[in-house]
Amino acid sequence: MKTAIIIPAYNESATIARVVEDVRPYGTPVVVDDASSDGTAELAAASGAEVVRHARNRGYDGALQSGFERAAALGAEIAVSFDADGQHDVTGLSRMLALFESNEADLVIGVRPQPARFSEALFNLYTRLRFGVSDILCGLKGYRMSLYHTHGRFDGTRSIGTELALAALRGGVLSTTVAVAIHPRQGQPRFGTSLCTNWRILRALLRALGADLSALRNCLDARRCIDLGKRR
Questions:
Q1: What is the pLDDT of residues 84-143, one digit of tens each?
Q2: To pair with 232 at 20 to 30 A between CA atoms, which of 72, 123, 128, 213?
Q3: Which domain holds residue 222?
Q4: Does residue 149 sit in helix, strand or coil?
Q5: Which of 205, 167, 170, 158 is nearest to 59 (CA)?
């Protein structure tokens, strides 16, 4: 089972080498350097990662898109997103890959002990009620590459890393979750802790709600057409 571990990274020189070394036993590390200025790319390459470099910062979703494109080019069957800041414990990654090996899931979503921001808690409330997923914004997620090939992209809706998972859940794929232990972060969070960051996440939530409402409306319209045809 060929696996790519996709690691979006922006100015993560303090942790990237250790993260790459930690995940190498589980698959091919694919570090997407999102126009860092601190030598992140060089450190990742020296640690044995496949490195994709962005000339300009494309954001988290854009970095994931590039990572999945490289995973597809490498012929990966499984792709796992993994944070570059050293917070994810690799035991969660190990349990996730075991579920794919045993064909228990096509999508596996990590669940942290608690969300980092109030906006994440709101997003998680929506996905828990809608799909039974209690931490949609966890950066540790695993996908069969067939899901990516079907959907075709990762960065079309500014979803803060949730687009492909939500598309798969709406499609009714076989999914499950794993608990993820979180270590203290070194350095500043990629998304920050400001009101602006919370607003970005809330906008992603509103887009997700809008997509669900649009799908529901289309379903109701289709049923009306069927009922009208039967009456005729």
A1: 999 999 999 999 999 999 999 999 999 999 888 899 999 999 999 999 999 999 999 999
A2: 213
A3: 3-231
A4: helix
A5: 158
Count up the domains in the chain and report the number: 1
CATH number of the domain within which 41 lies: 3.90.550.10
The HSE-up count of residue 15 (CA atoms within 13 Å, CB side) is 22
Render pLDDT for 20-59 as a digit per residue (tens, 0 to 9).
999 999 999 999 999 999 999 999 999 999 999 999 999 9
Round to whole Å and give the CA distance between 211 and 193.
26
Pairing of strands 78-81, 28-33: unpaired
Q: Specify the pairing of strand 3-9 against strand 50-53.
A: unpaired
Q: Within its chain, how far is the Cα of 158 from the centroid?
A: 12
Q: Are 20 and 7 in contact, with CB atoms under 8 Å apart?
A: yes
Which 8-state DSSP code applies to residue 185? P
Question: Using CA atoms, how far apart are residues 147 and 128, in angstroms rounded to an integer?
Answer: 21
